[in-house]
Amino acid sequence: MACRGRLPCPHADPNVAALQDYTIKLYREIEAESGQNAGLHMTGGVNMASDPQRWEWLKSAWAVFQSVGIETARLVTPEEIKAMCPIVDVNGVLGGLYDSNEGHLDPYGTTHDGRASSRKAIRRARPGSTVSSPSTKAFSSAARRR
Fold first, then answer.
1. Which residues contact 108 (CB under 8 A, 6 or more apart)?
2. I need a surface site. Which of 21, 31, 47, 125 has the fewest CB within 10 A?
3. Beta strand 95-99 with 73-76: parallel, antiparallel or unpaired?
4. pLDDT per residue as tens, the chain (146 positions)
5. 3-state SS of 6-31?
6. Strand partners, 99
C-alpha cells in the first residue's frame, strides 16, 4: 500500500509501524529544531471496516501498534466514528481504527525545513563556518556529465 504524502498507512508489520511512528516524531523534532514549519499536518484519521475480515485486520494492526509502543491509535465503534465525522454513513460499519497521527506532509515545507535544520547542525559542528547554498552552475554541469 503506497501513501504519497499521507501519514501513516496502517501497517501490520511491526517494523514498518515502528518506522512510521519514528518518522513522524523525527519530523516534529526537526521542525522544533529549525523553527520552520515542516508542512506536517496531523489531522487524525479513521480506517473503517464493513466486513469481518477487514475488521479483524484492523484489530491486528492495532495490536501491532500497541506492541511497538504506538499509543496514538485506538479502536472505535461506529457511533464514535459518527461523532467524529457526522457526514459519514456508518450503516454496515463494524468498527474502525482511529489514529491521531494520521495526516499529510507537504514535500516543499519538509525540504526547506530539513535544509534549515542541516545548516544549524553544520554551524554547531563547525563554529564560525558559513553554510551557503550550492551554486546552480555546479548542479547543471554535474547533470550534463551524466
1. 39
2. 125
3. antiparallel
4. 334 444 555 666 777 777 877 877 888 887 787 777 777 788 889 999 999 999 999 999 899 888 888 888 999 999 999 999 999 999 999 999 999 888 877 776 666 656 666 666 666 666 666 655 554 454 444 445 55
5. EECCCCCCHHHHHHHHHHHHHHHHHH
6. 45, 73
Return the residue matching grid coordinates 563556518. Answer: 129
pTM over 0.90: no
Q: Say which residue the cell 517494523 belongs to.
A: 15
The Cα–Cα gap between 72 and 25 comes to 12
Q: Where are the alpha helices (DSSP H) in 68-131?
A: 78-84, 107-125
Single-letter amino acid, residue 109? G
Q: Specify the amino acid at residue 143.
A: A
Dihedral of CA atoms 24, 25, 28, 33 in degrees, nearest 10, equals -140
Helix (H) or strand (E) holding 96: strand 95-99
10 grid coordinates: 496502517
Tell me if 99 sits within 8 A of 44, measured CB to CB: yes
